[in-house]
């Protein structure tokens, strides 16, 4: 190039933007958060959407007792994506975050402090203890609030709901009062999951199933009254994994449809609990397994009979008549028929201890059998239980106590132990102390599932609720269908008290609405502490003698707390609405929050507090194992924020199918940064080229070339995907389709094809202006579609284009309305054919580049041999521009044998040919007309004309 010739680079319309390629998310995201706070984005959203139809995603409250884990991040980010999506599709979606503040998790933390100091928690005044619990919860609410906000979660953080707020405690008491007044709340003795360490009942949802080694025993129950002559002189054999429950035995169960065998022992091994000549009764198909376990070398089946002929017999307790029992176990043990008996393990007989199992309790109640109380709140046998007095089932350290060994020893001394073994199985443990739980009969407060048809109402409500995924409906339905009465009392200090008085003589709870109202009013004014600081007469008034009533000191189950959030949030707040549009939590909440909210609402309002329920899975390490500190595979949200940025976590949430379990780890995070980079680079390329866009020169779609109209058609299709995904909560599909659109349709195709026109054509060239008009529309759509997911990046890109005015934010926008006429499926089909042919050309040229025959595609002018169908599609297309070659020839002649082909594109073959002419120093095409213009001797005619219109730099 001569010195007086122009620098053609300065005549190109090259991309120009301040939007950086490197995101710097850990630094940039806090700046954007600060801006949202400064401009009061939340307040602007509420003002802008006033009067719109509400969309209410009611927040399931996390516990305020520690830093957030990755499951919290998944949950809150998914909620935020949904709320932002609904806000941008025409709804008013005010998200009110909440916290669960009462209960064992927080109380346990305070007790740990006392244990570390050697202090006795029970010696501390209860109000002082509750104050410490409240302060602990308040501290962690503040911590978690900032951690949630750092994830980009938008909500009314200044006004969350808290179950420990006075108003909330008052409403919880009022809701419980409704069950009291309707007769559904009652006190009764039932076996419930019990933590001996924490000395409280636990809900099923609070039990974690962990591997546990249990001792198994086979025990003889001698038949003393036979319903069938074949049973005379025989012993029914039971099998159990809980030997300590034998003192509580009051019956034996069989299945009336099973076949049972009476066997006579004819030979025994050296070490055995069996005796030659004795007769034993077991299920027919469990005879072999029982004999092997008991060391019975040979036996004879002397009779077979169905369970229906065994039921009605009477057995003796294994400890009948034993020395030291004082006749305590000399009662009859009836054999009853029960559907829950199985014959896949054990003996086909179940020993029934009504105080230690739900099935046992129901069977005992149905047959008028005594429900004994044998074990105290500390997990030790009461001193009035002969042979077992004082023996601990579970120690205060959460270990197995001596009760099992004591029971087995006494059974063996009585000559009733046939065999002993062990079993590793999943057994319930406390989610707090991690100690094994026991089923223990104890007096508790229950909400009846039958009174006022609560079960029927709940099942009907489930059928009317939409579930995502659908399987959640069947799961919750089966739980409600078979669940026992709801135990709502806990023997703890930190919670809403059960605001009930019980008459000391009759044992009946006082049902008086005026009393309930006085309690609720006191809680509203002073909080639930009023229950412990006030004289009972304050609540009972002048109508009742406080000396005649016992004030209940238990607190209500925290699941009742959280199950009541709809009452003091959705109903009580002007910005909310009842019922909620959606409840969204992990799949474990079918037995937790979804469950308790359903029962509470159906019991007081007759329907569910939600129209739809969405569940996500649990988060696993990327190798599929459970996360644990010992394995070093725990992903901490705060660390991801500091290293990669919260945007990567937000992308992770939608990149996985969250209806099942999700995985995350370092390798996945790095892959996610590649996905993120694709989206960011797409936005950056759009911004760079749109620096040259003049809105006054926008081209009408009907005047655009086919390629631009194809992009508009693709935008229309994507709009349908996005809106359907929002409606069906399928954000994984939105992510996949948008990523494919950006990576394949735009970056690898449209942007690649149109670079030449955008950079090199004259400023007012019709094709260039059409392309710029399309880029403007693409930017408008992408920033909106991605805004709920990549909330920081789209905000940064939007402000880079439109300015940082206080009233400007991508999140104040609505999803663009795409004209219906843009969709052209015939055009999309045509361009699918064009792209299929292009793929063959690009592959052929790649081979030539690898062979060093050419340096770039623009060095080539290949001959494309194509079928008539392909030629028809290419007839109106500048295929050289599409393939980014300097020229191209479409031929209907037979392709030479050495032409390039792809196996999956049979009707296209490419013969290589070099382009003729010289290389244009501006667009780099090799063309015959390079140098034809005297004013621009080293550029092509197109570029020479373009330079005339821009003698200085590109505008």
From TrEMBL:
IleRS has two distinct active sites: one for aminoacylation and one for editing. The misactivated valine is translocated from the active site to the editing site, which sterically excludes the correctly activated isoleucine. The single editing site contains two valyl binding pockets, one specific for each substrate (Val-AMP or Val-tRNA(Ile)). L-isoleucyl-5'-AMP binds at residue 585. This is Isoleucine--tRNA ligase. It is found in: Cytoplasm. Pfam families: Anticodon_1, tRNA-synt_1, zf-FPG_IleRS. One of its GO terms (biological process) is isoleucyl-tRNA aminoacylation. CDD domains: Anticodon_Ia_Ile_BEm. The gene is ileS. PANTHER family: ISOLEUCINE--TRNA LIGASE, MITOCHONDRIAL (PTHR42765:SF1), SOLEUCYL-TRNA SYNTHETASE (PTHR42765). GO terms for cellular component: cytosol. Residues 708-860 form the Methionyl/Valyl/Leucyl/Isoleucyl-tRNA synthetase anticodon-binding domain. A motif ('HIGH' region) lies at residues 62-72. The keyword Lipid metabolism does not apply. ATP binds at residue 629. Monomer. One of its GO terms (molecular function) is zinc ion binding. Belongs to the class-I aminoacyl-tRNA synthetase family. IleS type 1 subfamily. It catalyses: tRNA(Ile) + L-isoleucine + ATP = L-isoleucyl-tRNA(Ile) + AMP + diphosphate. A motif ('KMSKS' region) lies at residues 626-630.
């Amino acid at each position: 190039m001569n010195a007086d010739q122009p620098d053609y680079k300065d005549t190109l319309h090259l991309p120009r933007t301040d939007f950086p390629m490197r995101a710097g998310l850990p630094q940039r995201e806090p700046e954007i958060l600060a801006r949202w706070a400064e401009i009061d984005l939340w307040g602007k959203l509420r003002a802008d959407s006033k009067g719109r139809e509400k969309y209410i995603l009611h927040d399931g409250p996390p516990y305020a007792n520690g830093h957030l884990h990755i499951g919290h991040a998944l949950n809150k980010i998914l909620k935020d994506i949904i709320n932002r999506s609904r806000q941008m599709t025409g709804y008013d979606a005010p998200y009110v975050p909440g916290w669960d503040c009462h209960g064992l998790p927080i109380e346990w933390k305070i007790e740990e402090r006392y244990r570390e100091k050697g202090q006795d928690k029970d010696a501390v005044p209860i109000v002082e203890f509750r104050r410490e619990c409240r302060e602990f919860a308040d501290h962690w609410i503040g911590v978690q609030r900032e951690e949630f906000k750092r994830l980009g979660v938008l909500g009314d953080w200044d006004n969350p709901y808290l179950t420990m707020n006075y108003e909330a405690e008052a409403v919880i008491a009022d809701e419980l009062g409704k069950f009291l007044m309707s007769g559904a709340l009652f006190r009764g003795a039932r076996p419930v999951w019990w933590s001996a360490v924490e000395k409280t009942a636990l809900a099923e949802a609070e039990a974690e199933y962990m591997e546990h080694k249990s001792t198994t025993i086979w025990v003889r129950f001698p038949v003393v009254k036979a319903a069938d002559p074949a049973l005379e002189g025989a012993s029914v054999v039971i099998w159990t994994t809980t030997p300590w429950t034998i003192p509580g035995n009051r019956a034996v169960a069989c299945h009336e449809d099973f076949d049972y065998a009476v066997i006579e022992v004819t030979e025994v091994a050296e070490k055995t609990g069996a005796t030659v000549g004795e007769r034993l009764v077991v299920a027919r198909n469990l005879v072999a397994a029982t004999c092997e376990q008991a060391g019975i070398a040979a036996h004879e089946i002397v009779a077979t009979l169905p369970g229906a002929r065994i039921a009605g017999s009477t057995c003796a307790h294994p400890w009948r008549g034993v020395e030291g029992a004082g006749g305590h176990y000399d009662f009859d043990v009836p054999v009853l028929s029960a559907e829950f008996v199985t014959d896949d393990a054990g003996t086909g007989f179940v020993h029934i201890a009504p105080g230690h199992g739900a099935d046992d309790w129901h069977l005992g109640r149905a047959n008028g059998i005594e429900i004994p109380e044998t074990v105290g709140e500390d997990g030790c046998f009461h001193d009035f239980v002969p042979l077992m007095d004082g023996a601990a089932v579970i120690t205060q350290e959460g270990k197995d106590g001596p009760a099992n060994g004591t029971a087995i020893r006494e059974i063996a001394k009585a000559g009733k132990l046939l065999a002993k073994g062990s079993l590793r199985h999943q057994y319930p443990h406390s989610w707090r102390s991690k100690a094994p739980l026991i089923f223990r009969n104890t007096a508790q407060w229950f909400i009846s599932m039958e009174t006022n048809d609560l079960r029927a109402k709940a099942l009907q409500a489930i059928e009317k609720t939409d579930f995502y995924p659908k399987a959640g409906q069947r799961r919750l339905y089966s739980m409600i269908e078979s669940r026992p009465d709801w135990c709502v009392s806990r023997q703890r200090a930190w919670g809403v008290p059960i605001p009930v008085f019980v008459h000391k003589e009759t044992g009946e709870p006082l049902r008086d609405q005026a009393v309930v109202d006085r309690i609720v009013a006191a809680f509203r004014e002073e909080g639930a502490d009023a229950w412990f600081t006030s004289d009972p007469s304050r609540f009972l008034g002048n109508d009742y003698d406080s000396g005649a009533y016992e004030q209940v000191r238990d607190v209500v189950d925290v699941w009742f707390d959280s199950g009541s959030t709809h009452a003091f949030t959705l109903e009580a707040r002007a910005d909310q609405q009842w019922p909620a549009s959606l409840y969204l939590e992990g799949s474990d909440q079918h037995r937790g929050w979804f469950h308790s909210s359903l029962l509470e609402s159906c019991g007081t309002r007759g329907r569910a507090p939600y129209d739809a329920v969405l569940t996500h899975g649990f988060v696993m390490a990327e190798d599929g194992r459970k996360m644990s500190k010992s394995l070093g595979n725990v992903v901490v949200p705060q660390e991801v924020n500091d290293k990669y940025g919260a945007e990567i976590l937000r992308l992770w949430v939608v990149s996985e199918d969250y209806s099942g379990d999700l995985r995350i780890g370092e390798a996945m995070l790095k892959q996610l940064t590649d996905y993120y980079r694709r989206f960011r680079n797409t936005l950056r390329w759009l911004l760079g080229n749109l620096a040259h866009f003049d809105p006054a020169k926008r081209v009408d779609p009907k005047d655009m070339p086919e390629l631009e109209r194809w992009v508009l058609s693709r935008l229309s299709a994507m709009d349908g995907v996005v809106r359907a995904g929002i409606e069906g909560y399928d954000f994984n599909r939105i992510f996949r389709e948008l990523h494919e659109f950006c990576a394949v349709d735009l970056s690898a195709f449209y942007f690649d094809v149109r670079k030449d026109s955008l950079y090199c054509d004259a400023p007012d060239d019709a094709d260039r202006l059409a392309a710029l008009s399309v880029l403007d529309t693409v930017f408008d759509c992408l920033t909106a579609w991605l805004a709920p997911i990549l909330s920081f990046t789209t905000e940064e890109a939007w402000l880079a284009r439109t300015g940082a005015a206080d009233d400007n934010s991508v999140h104040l926008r609505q999803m663009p309305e795409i004209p219906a006429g843009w969709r052209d499926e015939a055009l999309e089909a045509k361009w699918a054919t064009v792209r299929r042919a292009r793929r063959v050309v690009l592959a052929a040229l790649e081979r030539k580049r690898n062979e060093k025959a050419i340096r770039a595609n623009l060095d080539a002018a290949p001959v494309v041999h194509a079928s008539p169908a392909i030629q028809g599609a290419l007839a109106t297309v500048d295929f050289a521009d599409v393939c980014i070659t300097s020229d191209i020839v479409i031929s209907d002649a037979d392709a030479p044998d050495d032409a390039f082909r792809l196996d999956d594109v049979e009707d296209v073959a490419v013969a290589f040919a070099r382009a003729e002419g010289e290389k244009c120093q501006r667009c780099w095409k090799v063309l015959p007309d390079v140098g034809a213009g005297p004013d621009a001797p080293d550029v092509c005619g197109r570029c020479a004309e373009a330079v005339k219109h821009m003698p200085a730099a590109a505008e």
